[in-house]
Design brief:
It contains no helices and eleven strands. Strands 2, 4, 5, 6, 9, 10 and 11 form a seven-stranded mixed β-sheet that branches. It has a four-stranded antiparallel β-sheet with strand order 1-3-8-7, with no helix packed on it. With 112 residues, it is an all-beta fold.
Length: 112
C-alpha cells in the first residue's frame, strides 16, 4: 500500500538549516506531483511547496520563497525540503502529500 514517511525534523536555530525527507513506497513516485504542507499548533494546514513529476517546475508559498527548496529523486522514491534561514515561525509539523495520501509528519521546532 502507499506509504509516505517524513523524516529530518528536529530542533533548529534561527538562521539555521534542516533538510526534510519524504520517503515513499507502494507506488512509483515518478509521474506524480508532490507537495509539502505544514501545520503549526492551533493553526490550519498550510501549503509550503510543490514539485512537478519530473522536478522541472517548483512553486513556493510566499512565506518560504527563497530560503526553502523542494527537490526529488525519483530513483530513490524520495522528496526533499531543504529549509535554510530558519525562522521561529517555521515551527510546525511538516507533511508530504502525494496522490491524496498524507504522511505522519515530522516536527520542526525553531528556537534559540
Amino acid at each position: 500500500q502507499v506509504q509516505l514517511v517524513e523524516s529530518g525534523g528536529g530542533l533548529g536555530q534561527p538562521g539555521g538549516s534542516l533538510r526534510l525527507s519524504c520517503s515513499t513506497s507502494g507506488f512509483t513516485l515518478g509521474g506524480y506531483e508532490v507537495k509539502w504542507y505544514r501545520q503549526a499548533t492551533g493553526k490550519g494546514r498550510e501549503w509550503v511547496a510543490s514539485i512537478s513529476d519530473t522536478g522541472s517546475i517548483t512553486r513556493y508559498a510566499d512565506s518560504v520563497k527563497g530560503p526553502f527548496t523542494i527537490s526529488r529523486d525519483n530513483f530513490k522514491n524520495t522528496v526533499y525540503l531543504q529549509m535554510n534561514s530558519l525562522k521561529l515561525e517555521d515551527t510546525a509539523q511538516y507533511y508530504c502529500y502525494i496522490l491524496n495520501y498524507w504522511g505522519q509528519g515530522t516536527q520542526v521546532t525553531v528556537s534559540t
